[in-house]
Amino acid sequence: MALKVGDKLPNFKAKDTNGNLFDSQDYIGKQPLVIYFYPKDETKVCTEQACSFRDNYEEFKEFGAEIIGISADSVQSHLKFKSKFNLPFILLSDNDKKIRKLFQVENDFLIIPGRQTFVANKEGEIVLVFNSMSGKIHIEKALKIVQKMTK
């Protein structure tokens, strides 16, 4: 059964671009999270999506939210992607696809890893689940929800 609005954010751990272990529990109770799953580093739509999150990052931070991008790419691939496009947010490597399975993010068109965004409030309750192969619209939807949470 897919995660939905009102569900608790699953607990997960993964390596970030610095090789450090990221633990979702370090953020729950402290700040809202925007967690987006994307198919692959440096592909056209994924790069547009990441750069749109980058271009709006300060606005997300103003509302206290942290952005976390997750794909099956390696830590090395994420490091190169992050550096090349000056991405200020966290990228996590899910090379064994355990986090994707935990969040129940299905493949699109049977073979392409899904592009899905989850927004959780400070308490870790999911307030948005959005699935679309269009990258930029994820940022608009997530930012609108984050803004509403802080009003």
From TrEMBL:
InterPro entries: AhpC/TSA (IPR000866), Peroxiredoxin_AhpC-typ (IPR024706), Peroxiredoxin_BCP/PrxQ (IPR050924), Thioredoxin-like_sf (IPR036249), Thioredoxin_domain (IPR013766). It comes from the Bacteria. It is found in: Thylakoid. Pfam families: AhpC-TSA. It catalyses: a hydroperoxide + [thioredoxin]-dithiol = an alcohol + [thioredoxin]-disulfide + H2O. Residues 3-151 form the Thioredoxin domain. Monomer. This is thioredoxin-dependent peroxiredoxin. The lineage of its organism: Bacteria, Pseudomonadati, Bacteroidota, Flavobacteriia, Flavobacteriales.
